[in-house]
Amino acid sequence: MILAGYDGILFDLDDTLMDHTGASIKGLDSWCAELGLPTGQYERWAEIEYKWVSRYERGDITHPQQRRERAKEFTGQLNLSDEEATQLYAGFIRGYQAHWTAFNNAIPTIHNALAAGKKVGILTNGGREMQEGKVRAGDLVIEGVELIPLVDYDAPKPRPRAYSLGCEKIGTAPERTAMIGDNWLNDVEGARQAGLTGVYFYQGLAHQPKPQPADQEVISSLSQLVFSD
Ligand SMILES: [Mg+2]
Fold this sequence. Notes:
CATH topology of the largest domain: Rossmann fold
Bound molecules: magnesium ion
Largest sheet: 6 strands, parallel
Shape: globular
Number of helices: 8
Mean pLDDT: 96
Radius of gyration: 18 Å
């Protein structure tokens, strides 16, 4: 699709620029092997992740708490202390980060946007330290690209403040900014409600609702994005 009439492009990070699902599947298997648990449990992990991350996004629990709760529920160790649960979760993270890679088209797509004169940002609900590590691992540290980890501002997507913050950080107006991402609610619907254009990157992942036939702003590969004036 041709993105014309925009000054700014905001990309989501996980499952948009970085292969989050691929790294999670492999990382989870390493962690399970370490713990002596059966591998191949990604579907269950993803359900637990969705449940607790949504609670964080709604403002019910803190970001560190959603991590601890995921580790506790997945392993069935519900009575762990905060410290024990944090340590347990760290085991998953070690496996996950060992498999961090960007999608093939991520780097060329960002360069195309910059070459077309667009302001570019990465608007992500993750924490700064982890997301900085990810963009380094994916070779996505590119001059002119602003990483905006929303945990820092306690304003995760889909809260309206997330998108206005993203626009402020790259210096564009919401109506002149397009947000591209895999999460229908966080990257498309929420962005549209905040006055941006939301482009749905649909790859048929488990968490992705099918696009509506009438929705024109859908891509199945980053390479389909064409940036013009
Ligand atoms: Mg995502």
